[in-house]
Amino acid sequence: MTTEQVHDIGKRRAWVIWAVALAVYVLAVFHRSSLGVAGIIAAERFHISATSLATFTVLQLVVYAGMQVPVGVLLDRFGSRAMLLGGLGLMTAGQLAFAFAGSFPAAVAARAAVGAGDAMIFISVIRLVTVWFLVRQAPMVTQVTGLTGQLGAIAAAGPLSYLLHELGWTRAFATTSSIGLVLVVAVALLVKDSPYRSDEVVAIKLRALALSVRTVWGNPGTRLGMWSHFTSQFSATVFALLWGYPFLVQGLGWSSGGASTLLMAMTAWAVVSGLVTARLVARLPFYRSWIVIGIVIAMVVAWTAVLLWPGAAPHWLVVVMAFATASGGPAAMVGFDLARSFNPTHETGRANGLVNIGGFTASLLTMALIGVVLDLSASGGMGSYSLSDFKLALSVQYLFWAFGVLQTLRYRRRGIDHLARLHPGAIDQMKSGRPFVHPGIGTEGV
């Protein structure tokens, strides 16, 4: 099958395609983060407890994480354009249904639809980065993708909060759902799957792609990327999507405006730290997983200071903790760069899907456990939780940090052995500061 190149790689068309796909990712993050500022309102609207409130986001992330492998298979089969269009359709329908939901079960079903659509977006964008940009460009573009996507979190923390106040629940969510219709048109007109006339991975039968997931999963580099993602991402996700706002407002006594401002400032800090992380990753490819672990240690130290502080921690310390937590977002993006070193291009959809499962699995488990601990500490609903209740509940994060770091170190060792055995010279190449590019053989897992 021909793979004739018909478009330049890393040039103007690549940037246009990336920009459109990135806009879709920004919208996905916005929809995903919308409960971060609407959680207290949702608890009142549907008359639910903390555990039930967590169900919204947990179910959304369960659907998101559970769909990563099948979406990865479909992505390698049908391409990014089709998956972006499908994801936009599901997110738009889900958010519109959420706007008009009058009962808790209906609202949960709507959020599940949002999660299903969201599941198709990020790895589709990352696959476009992989095929449309040069190897030297890919790490920075990947980081910028993750960081720019967080503009959606800013929009959820600021503008959505304003819309909820001015327009009310139904009109605010209905208005935001309409953005998806505009992006459907943009994706249909501008996004192309590949700079080549024919991409041979699309011709592979769906059954063969599904069976090959076992091979991709058996590759220790895929698992190293997944555990790096698992360890570094969940704290920022839990804080921004659900429990950060209640902790700040009800636990620490911050104003609503102050809490929203901090959530937006976290995104700005993630941009700064992400640029530094991308530079380090590009210069020190052999030490990428150690960079991730170093960022996680900084998060653990900052959280420990806040949780052990007698009473409410001072504002400056909370800001330091929030910024350290926000740095976990860029650190999680390193997981995709790790997987790229161990898997050929035609397996990137499956590899990235498996990597993406890590952080979101940790996030949903942490969110659920925090809700359970809060309800066990004080059963009187959202209004009854004290600062000590929040501190106890948020301590469950240490379980996931510890387990994740151990697994990252374990698969770092296995990954090094894997490269030394199958790709002699790759280790020395990375130690010298040059990235290792997989030669394209895709049968070395398991």
From TrEMBL:
<dbReference type="InterPro" id="IPR020846">
    <property type="entry name" value="MFS_dom"/>
</dbReference>
<dbReference type="InterPro" id="IPR050189">
    <property type="entry name" value="MFS_Efflux_Transporters"/>
</dbReference>
<feature type="domain" description="Major facilitator superfamily (MFS) profile">
    <location>
        <begin position="17"/>
        <end position="412"/>
    </location>
</feature>
<dbReference type="InterPro" id="IPR036259">
    <property type="entry name" value="MFS_trans_sf"/>
</dbReference>
<keyword id="KW-0812">Transmembrane</keyword>
<dbReference type="GO" id="GO:0005886">
    <property type="term" value="C:plasma membrane"/>
</dbReference>
<feature type="transmembrane region" description="Helical">
    <location>
        <begin position="53"/>
        <end position="75"/>
    </location>
</feature>
<keyword id="KW-1003">Cell membrane</keyword>
<keyword id="KW-1133">Transmembrane helix</keyword>
<dbReference type="Pfam" id="PF07690">
    <property type="entry name" value="MFS_1"/>
</dbReference>
<dbReference type="InterPro" id="IPR011701">
    <property type="entry name" value="MFS"/>
</dbReference>
<feature type="transmembrane region" description="Helical">
    <location>
        <begin position="290"/>
        <end position="309"/>
    </location>
</feature>
<dbReference type="GO" id="GO:0022857">
    <property type="term" value="F:transmembrane transporter activity"/>
</dbReference>
<feature type="transmembrane region" description="Helical">
    <location>
        <begin position="351"/>
        <end position="372"/>
    </location>
</feature>
<feature type="transmembrane region" description="Helical">
    <location>
        <begin position="147"/>
        <end position="165"/>
    </location>
</feature>
<feature type="transmembrane region" description="Helical">
    <location>
        <begin position="224"/>
        <end position="245"/>
    </location>
</feature>
<keyword id="KW-0472">Membrane</keyword>
<feature type="transmembrane region" description="Helical">
    <location>
        <begin position="315"/>
        <end position="339"/>
    </location>
</feature>
<feature type="transmembrane region" description="Helical">
    <location>
        <begin position="171"/>
        <end position="191"/>
    </location>
</feature>
<feature type="transmembrane region" description="Helical">
    <location>
        <begin position="392"/>
        <end position="411"/>
    </location>
</feature>
<feature type="transmembrane region" description="Helical">
    <location>
        <begin position="15"/>
        <end position="41"/>
    </location>
</feature>
<protein>
    <submittedName>
        <fullName>Cyanate permease</fullName>
    </submittedName>
</protein>
<feature type="transmembrane region" description="Helical">
    <location>
        <begin position="257"/>
        <end position="278"/>
    </location>
</feature>
<feature type="transmembrane region" description="Helical">
    <location>
        <begin position="113"/>
        <end position="135"/>
    </location>
</feature>
<feature type="transmembrane region" description="Helical">
    <location>
        <begin position="82"/>
        <end position="101"/>
    </location>
</feature>
